[in-house]
Amino acid sequence: MAKKIEMKQRQTTNLLQDTEGLTTVEYIIILCLIAVVGFAAWKGFGETVKKRVGEADTTLNTMSGSGGS
């Protein structure tokens, strides 16, 4: 019986000391969060560029239709 208790204590100690797997999971979670934030920022940036190009196109079409030679 004492041998089983000692074995369980050793297993528990080894489990508590092994933090490498936990660190890997934390890095994966952080990487996923960074990817989501990056994707959202890129999408927002793309919408802003699309809007600005549309405004420039409208301005150029207005200028070429109303003025010129």
Textual characterization of the structure:
The structure is a single chain. With 69 residues, the protein is mainly α. Helices cover 91% and strands 0% of the residues. It has two helices and no strands. The chain has helices at 2-17, 20-66. 0% of the residues are buried. The mean pLDDT is 86.
Query: Helical proportion?
Result: over 70%
Order of helices and strands: HH
Summed over residues and divided by their number, the pLDDT gives a mean of: 86
Instruction: Decide which structural class fits the backbone.
Output: mainly alpha
Return Rg in Å: 30 Å
Measured by DSSP, the beta-strand proportion falls in: under 5%
Q: Give the CA-based shape.
A: rod-shaped
> How many beta strands in the DSSP annotation?
0
Termini, distance in Å? 102 Å
Give the low-confidence spans: none
Give a quick account of the main beta sheet: strands, pairing sense, barrel closure: none
DSSP summary: helix tally: 2
Notable traits:
mainly alpha
Summarize, please.
91% of the residues lie in helices and 0% in strands.
Topology:
Elements: H1 2-17, H2 20-66
